[in-house]
Structures are given as C-alpha cells and as structure tokens.
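Q: What structure does this chain adopt?
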Amino acid sequence: MSGFISTVSIFVASAALFSGIALAGADQHASIPNTSGGVFISCQNPISVVTIARAPDGTRVSQAGPSGFAWQHRLPPMNSEYDQYYVAPDGSAAVVALSQGVGNVYLVSQRQTPTVLRGAIAAVDFQGPLAMIVHTDRPNGPYNVSIYRVGSGDLVGNTSFARPNWEDFRQFTVRLSGDGRFYYYLDDMQRLQLRDAVTGKPVFLDAQLPQGIEDVLLRTRNSGYLIASGKLLAIVGGDAEEIQTPLLPLNLVESTDPSIQPVNFHFGWGVRDVASGEWLALGRDGEIITAGHGMAAVLESQNGRVQVYDLSGKSRLLRSVAVDTRGGRRPMCANGYGAMTYRDGQFIWRRAK
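A:
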C-alpha cells in the first residue's frame, strides 16, 4: 500500500498548479466486484484526490491535496466483494456502504466524525454543498431520501416515495437538481416526478414534457436537458426545445461546467455550448467519461486512448493519453490532464500530451 500512497502523492503534487473547480454529480463504483487491488481512486478534481482502500482490518477513506493528506477516516471492514463507493467529483466527500444489503452507510468528509445512517443504497448525488443519499430499509420498501450538508453533517431533508418498477428502462434512479431544491426520478410510466428536497411535496415544471423520457439532467425547475423517444431536448423556461443532433442520443453526462452539456450518442459523443447552441466537439468513437472546467475526456473504444479536449478557447486543443483498456476496463480515473490506470498491482498516472 505504501507504493500506492507514493504514486498518488506524486500525482497530486504535479497537479498543484491547476485551480480548484466546483463539481457536481457522483463518481461512483457500485455493485461491481473489486478489480483494482482493493483500492478506488477519484481524481476528477486534480487537487483533491479521494482514495478508498479496503482491507481485512478496515476501510480507509482519505483526501490528498498538494500539501499531503487533508483528511482520513478508518471505517469498519467491507463485508461484501462488491464495492459501494460514491465520491463527490470535487473531492469534498464520499459515501461508503459496507454491503449491498441493509447495513451501515457512512458520509465522510473533513468533519472529524462521519455521519452514519442505516439502509441499502439506491442512489447518491452531490450538488454544491449537499449530499443526497437514497436508501431503503427493507426489500420492496419505499425509498428514503436523506439530504445532508456536507460541511456540517446536518440533515436538511428526510422524505420518502414509493419505489417505482425500474427493471426495464433505468438510465438513472434518483438525482438532485443542480440548485439543490428538489430531487427527481422516473415513475413506472417513465414520467418525470419532482419532489421538494426538504418537504417531499410534488414540484412541477413550467415546460410540457413529451412521453418516453429516457434520461434527464435538471439544474433548476426551468433549465436542463432530457432525452425522450430518441430526441435531445433543452428545457428553457416554459418550453422544451428539440436540439438537432448528428447521431441518436444515448445518455447525458453531468458536466461540472454549466456552460457546456456533454452527450453520449449510440455511436459517438458530442459537447454542446449552452449559450451559442453550437457543438464544440464531436466524435464517432468512444464515450465521454468526465467533463467540466472547459475540458472533456473521452475514452475511445477502438484504440484504448483517452482523448482530452480543451473546449475553453476558439481553437479546440486535443491531447491524448495512452490507456490500456484490454478486457473493456475503464481507467481508474480521468480528468483534463490525464488518466490513472491499474495493472499488475500498480497504479500509473498517464499525463495527457
């Protein structure tokens, strides 16, 4: 494990020149057997890298910055071969469940004592200072939605809703809006349902939405994107406007930068400038694995490269990272500056050139 810590320390030190970024969503590794030596790394924010290391005597969660470890927690050992990790993309916090079933769930951050709740996790989302944990305490029971302030650990909302039947069409379970005011999900009929984050009461959009919703990202009640019946639409005020796409849209990628919207197509990907409506970059191979702060990292399926696109200027700079993706494995983590891989018991930071 000491070699791993050394590798991460060198990586973080090399990233010290980059500014911090405000991120949203969740970098998750859940319901998947561990395939990386018992360690998970989240490096979307290159100066706040979160590592989660499982061992027989406990589970260690830590955040490393340019000056070393900022905080560390030691939790009880995992009792499942399946990882249950969810990390805030800005590296400020993480949610760790010790098992897939009902058990202890920990919200860890720079606070000295983790916040603990009990249940089986259905979804986790981070937006700004808030963390949403969706969990259930029994099979086929309702979903409980607990929303916390990451900095203080205070519970700001604790509501519930009946569990929909998501077996056939789920792109996501539950998400928290970008402004943190409500959470949303698709019901049994694939209709969008919104509920107030504090009271759980229904919230309604001004826009009339189409049938057949497949994926949704909402920043506020009146702004966001959705995919419905094979079409990409932007929610602007009281309207849902169709956006012309070069390919059939597959899913939406939550950007850490509100000025761009990344989209994965069935065969390719694209990044749209929200203000101008232009597609800043398009590709016909691979998928976007992270985006924000004027950058997008794309994992190409044919040659196993991560392509890093700089979307901040008039000329779109392109840099590449060689990544071994044999067996269909993704990089351990990636950001605008490179990617972390794991192979033969070693973690290697590969810088974009």
